[in-house]
Amino acid sequence: MDPSERSPDDGRRALLRHTVATLAYRAGKALRDAPPGFADLRVGPESRTPAEILAHMGDLLDWALALAGGTHVWRDSTPLDWPDEVERFFGALGRFEAFLASGAPLGRSAEQLFQGPVADALTHTGQIAMLRRLAGAPVRGENYARAEIEAGRVGASQPGPRVEFD
Questions:
Q1: How many domains does the chain have?
Q2: Considering the domain boundaries, does residue 166 fall inside one?
Q3: pLDDT tens over the chain, length 166 residues
Q4: Please, which residues have CB within 8 angstroms of residue 136's CB and are 6 or more apart in sequence?
Q5: Does residue 165 sit within a domain?
Q6: In CATH, what number is assigned to the domain containing residue 119?
Q7: 71 lies in some domain
């Protein structure tokens, strides 16, 4: 297709797909090799545990898929065991990415999908990374601008970091 024939929505969808791949990369790094007991860490009486945050992230991505399909469906999930919750998260991310890649019409704008569920999931990824540091198992910093991120790569298996630092 000639670039002049693309609609503005094609560019928005492409950016949203790249953002979803970025979420997969960053979340993968924060979730990988979590120490024993991490899933149940509670830093305050009203705080969520990492498992509760991750369950919420899976719910956000289920919601994103529903919104992309033109419906509004929300559910609060009870957290699973950590490995199962990690798998659920990446499964939900994969289903959302598959819808975006399909070219099917979006039930909400790319901007709405970003500003709602996707941005929220990115925020929660940062919370999990912060909790890793509080648990004594910090995630190393990285120059994410140099990370190997590409649209469509949204599974738990991600390329290794290119430029990490302490």
A1: 1
A2: no
A3: 555 555 667 899 999 999 999 999 999 999 999 999 999 999 999 999 999 999 999 999 999 999 999 999 999 999 999 999 999 999 999 999 999 999 999 999 999 999 999 999 999 999 999 999 999 999 999 999 999 999 999 999 999 999 998 7
A4: 35
A5: no
A6: 1.20.120.450
A7: yes
